Amino acid sequence: MDGWIKLHRKIIESAIWDKPPLYLKVWMFLLVSAQHSPYKGLLRGQMSLSIPDIIEGCKWRVGARTERPTKDQVYQIIDWLRKPNEGGHEGNAKATMITTTKATHGMLIEVVNYAVYQDSEEDESNDESNGETDTKPTRKQRQPNNINKNVKNEKNEQELIDSKASSRQNAKRVYTEADRVYKLAKRFHELAYENAVEIGTSHLIKEPDFQKWSDTFRLILERDKIPEVELGEVIKYALQENFYRTIIFSPKNLREHYPRILTQMRSQLRKPRFNAAGGKAQIEIVQDTGEPGATPEEMEKYLQKARDIKAQKEREREGGIRR
C-alpha cells in the first residue's frame, strides 16, 4: 500500500501506550486503512470495516502458527477507542480517537482529527531526522486485507469493463464470404437443401442466418477442436444417413449430435461379418472408394484361393524335406 501516516514520538506518553500491544496494533491498522481522500462515498479519514476485517488485518505469526485476536478483544478495543476523555492520541490526550456508525456491511469508522496523522504541516515536519541513520532498505508495508476494498473494487470494475468490451466485440463480429466458416455454412445449406429435395421437404427449408451458422462452425473448429477434414466427412455422412438426415437441419443441432454421428460413422468403417464355412467372425475394413465392394460369395472365393495357395506351398516344402 502506498502513502504514509505520521507517528508522533509522544505516542509513548499517550494512554494507548499503556494498554496491551493489541490495542496499538488495531489503532495502527485503522490509521493505515482510512481514506486519505474522498472515495466512493467515504470521506477523508473514514473507512468501511467489519469486525472480521479487523481480526484478519491484525493477525500475527507464532512460528508456523497463525494467531488472531478474538471478537471480544476487538470489540473491547473499538469500544475503548471511541470513548471520550479516556483514549487520547498524540495530538490531544483527552479526545475521542474514533467514531463508529452501523452500516449495511460492518460499520463506518472515522478517525477523529485524521489530519494529525496525515498532514505534513501539522506539528513537526514529517521529514525531520530522529537522529538515527537508516542503513536498511525500506521494508514493504504489509497491506491490510481490507484497504476499504479500493484496490479490489477497482480491479473488479476493470474486469467488468473488459468483459463488456469483449462482449461488444463478439457481438459485432461479421463474417465474409471469404471466411472458411462462412463457406462451410453455405456448403452445409446446399447439402441440406439437396437432401430436403430428395425426401420431399424442400418447402420447409428457410433462408438461414449465415452469420449465426458461421459462428457455430467457428465454435466447432476453435472451441471443440474439431479438424476441418473430419467435420466435412461428418456433415456429408449426417445428411446421407437415414436417421440423422431427418433431424440435422442446422449447424446448431449438428454440433449437439456430433459425438454420436462421428461414433456411428466410425463404427461402420469396421463391420463384423461371419464366414459361411467356419462360422467365425471376421472384420472387414470398409473403405469409401466410390466403387461397389466385393460380395460375400466373391470374398469367400478369394479366401479359398488363398488357403489353396498356402496348402500347396506346405506340400512343396514337405516334399523337399523328404528328398
Describe the structure.
- There is one protein chain.
- The chain is mainly alpha-helical.
- Helices cover 45% and strands 9% of the residues.
- The chain is built from ten helices and seven strands.
- The strands form three sheets. The protein has a three-stranded antiparallel beta sheet with strand order 1-5-4.
- α1 (21-33) packs across α3, α6 crosses α7 and α8 (228-238) crosses α9.
- The longest helix has 27 residues, at 296-322.
- Mean pLDDT is 77; it is low at 122-141 and 281-291.
Give the key terms.
elongated; mainly alpha; 323 residues; two-stranded antiparallel sheet
Main sheet specs: 3 strands, antiparallel
Helical content (DSSP H or I, runs of 4+) = 40-55%
Q: What would the principal axes of the Cα set say about the shape? A: elongated
Number of strands: 7
| H and E order | HEHEEHEEHHHHHHEEH
Structural class: mainly alpha
Low-confidence stretches: 122-141, 281-291
Beta-strand fraction estimate:
5-15%
The Cα radius of gyration reads 41 Å
Give the count of helical stretches. 10
Strand order of the largest sheet: 1-5-4
Distance between the termini: 101 Å
Averaging pLDDT over every residue, what do you get? 77
SSE diagram, text form:
Layout: H1 21-33, E1 46-49, H2 51-57, E2 60-62, E3 65-67, H3 71-81, E4 98-102, E5 107-111, H4 115-118, H5 150-171, H6 180-199, H7 210-223, H8 228-238, H9 251-267, E6 270-274, E7 281-285, H10 296-322
Antiparallel strand pairs: 1-5, 2-3, 4-5, 6-7
